[in-house]
Amino acid sequence: MADAALRLTTLAEELLGASLPVRIRAWDGSESGPPGAPVLVVRHRRALRRLLWRPGELGLARAWVAGEIDVDGDLYELLDLLAGIVWERGEQGKKTVHPVRDPRLRAAVRGLLRIGGVLPPPPPPAEEVRRRAGPLHTKRRDKKAISHHYDVGNDFYALVLGPSMVYSCAYWEDGGSLEDAQRDKLDLICRKLALKEGDRLLDVGCGWGSMAVHAAREYGAQVTGVTLSREQAAYARKRIAEEGLTDRIEIRVQDYRDVRDGPYDAVSSIGMAEHVGIVHYHEYADQLFFLLRPGGRLLNHQIARRPERDESAYHVDEFIDRYVFPDGELAPVGRTITTLEEAGFEVRDVESIREHYALTLRRWVEKLEADRRRATRLSTPGRARVWRLYMAASAVSFERNRIGVNQILAVKTPESGASGLPLRARTWN
């Protein structure tokens, strides 16, 4: 077969109903597509069998993680070129009651069979999380999910995140470094929470201790950080000892649902609520409300997806669910605000920092690509490929407004109605 690329291009264009804006290079050395465009490399016809047995995102993800497909050229450009077509096709597919009856899909299956052959499904790459049974977001299941993502080696995370070890959206100024932007994000949160000497701060999902260290060192807060990751906790404790802050910070391996030593003056939740699960959002909001003193503040920093007309369905990204954040769920920002209000909070400020996350992700990808061999040694070849794709694709999703990220400031306003906030808000700017 000396024309595999042309046959694949034709097949893709028939399925998508549009011209393919990228080139394809196939395992036989053939190429097809617009000159000068980024190249999607199909290294092995096994990738086609993955698509046959699991059409769509999961089949493509398995082929990517296994190294059977790759990109020659600008990964962001290729993802951006494909994004509009693929997402548009996805929206149309949601309206199709019986997608198997779609003649284009039937033709695609026949074409893949002719090119890829009929063989048993290839086993998934080792990095994939198998489909779990039982209820979502039990404490045991959440702990396993967190361990899959975070307990992959602190050295690997240090390579990607840099010295700040902050794994959430930074807050950028033109020309600033990643370290500056992460410091500015932590400081912005401290100012929004109006932290002062001696305040008790609970940092849920405390990660490697960056927020705890900043709040204790710069604002004199007494911080309790909780995480489900033992590797994160060990790193944070060592870091805190080196900073001489053991008298101000306690790090626990503990589920936030088990915290009982309130009241706290403030709670920070930075990139943690995405792991909670929609079925537990009310429990999450109720627990944080319970743990705050009257007048206490919550800063909820959370990724949000765009809302849909039918919000009754369970929304899951198969690639993210199987390879990145098992059981992770995103909710629209309006749903999060409503849940916090139903728990008793008064929501006082919402700031969208969507573009900031795209910038952050691009810097993380730069760090990974600058030392890809070491990243592979510190994890696995498949894990390094997972991270490269998920971070680059996420950056494109933020840039195209498919997802966003918001900081929500909420107050446990006392019965007197005195919120403790100044008449002119945003004094932290």
Automatic annotation (TrEMBL):
Record keywords, A-Z: Lipid metabolism, Methyltransferase, S-adenosyl-L-methionine, Transferase
CDD domains cross-referenced by the UniProt entry: AdoMet_MTases (cd02440)
Say which species the protein is native to: Streptomyces lunaelactis
Per the record, the coiled-coil ranges are none
Q: Which family does it belong to?
A: Belongs to the CFA/CMAS family.
Q: Which InterPro entries match?
A: CFA/CMAS (IPR050723), CMAS (IPR003333), MeTfrase_dom (IPR020803), SAM-dependent_MTases_sf (IPR029063)
Domain of life where this protein originates: Bacteria
Which Gene Ontology molecular function entries are recorded, alphabetically? methyltransferase activity
Q: Name one Pfam family in it.
A: CMAS
Residue ranges annotated for the Polyketide synthase-like methyltransferase domain, each copy included: 156-385
This one is known as SAM-dependent methyltransferase
Keyword Methyltransferase listed? The answer is yes
Instruction: Choose any GO biological process term that the UniProt entry carries and state it.
Output: methylation
